[in-house]
Amino acid sequence: MRAVAARVSRASVRVDGEVVGKIDEPGLLVLLGVHRADGSEQAEVMARKLHELRLLRDEESCASAGAPLLVVSQFTLYGDTRKGRRPSWSAAAPPERAEPLVEEVVARLRARGARVETGRFGAMMAVESVNDGPFTVLVEVPAPPG
C-alpha cells in the first residue's frame, strides 16, 4: 500500500461540482493507492502509520493533535513509468479488490478515533488543497511477497 500524505491547512474533494469530503483545519490530505497483493494486514499498518506519523507542526501526529485526514483513493500511485511513454498499471489492485481495502483503511482510522473525510472511489474527483510548508511524504507498507 502506498500513500502520499501532505500536511495541509485545508483540503476538499469534489465530484460533479459537489463537495463530498473536506477538512477546514490543519490535517493531512492522503492520496492512497492499493497494490494488487495488499490485504488487511497492510490496511491496518497504513492506518496506524497515517494516524501516528509526526508530520504536523511541532512534530505532532493526527493522533496527538486530533487533526483530521482527508483520504482519497488514487490507483495511479502504482503507475510504473520505467519503460516507454505509457505507464503500466499492472501493480495496482483492480477496483473490486482496492475499494474494500481503501474502505478498511478509513474504518481502521475511525476505529482509532481519527476524524476522516473521504473522496468517492472510482469517481473523477477534483482535489483542492492548501499545502502547509509544503510538507509532503511518501508512506509505504510493503505488499506481502509473492
Report on the structure:
This protein has 3 helices and 6 strands. Helix 1 packs across helix 3 (95-111). The protein is of the alpha/beta class and 146 residues long. The longest helix has 17 residues, at 95-111. Strands 1, 2, 3, 4, 5 and 6 form a 6-stranded mixed β-sheet that branches. Strand 4, helix 3 (95-111) and strand 5 (116-118) form a beta-alpha-beta unit.
What is the succession of H and E elements? EEEHHEHEE
Shape: globular
Average of per-residue pLDDT values: 96
Radius of gyration computed on alpha carbons: 15 Å
Count all strands and give the number. Answer: 6
N→C terminal distance? 15 Å
Helix content range? 10-25%
Specify the number of helices.
Answer: 3
* Strand residues, percent: 25-35%
Q: How would the blueprint of this fold be written?
A:
Elements: E1 2-15, E2 18-23, E3 27-33, H1 40-52, H2 62-65, E4 69-73, H3 95-111, E5 116-118, E6 125-140
Parallel strand pairs: 3-4, 4-5
Antiparallel strand pairs: 1-2, 1-3, 1-6
Helix pairs in contact: 1-3
Keywords:
single chain, 146 residues, alpha/beta, 6-stranded mixed β-sheet, globular
What would a concise description of this structure say?
The protein is an alpha/beta fold.
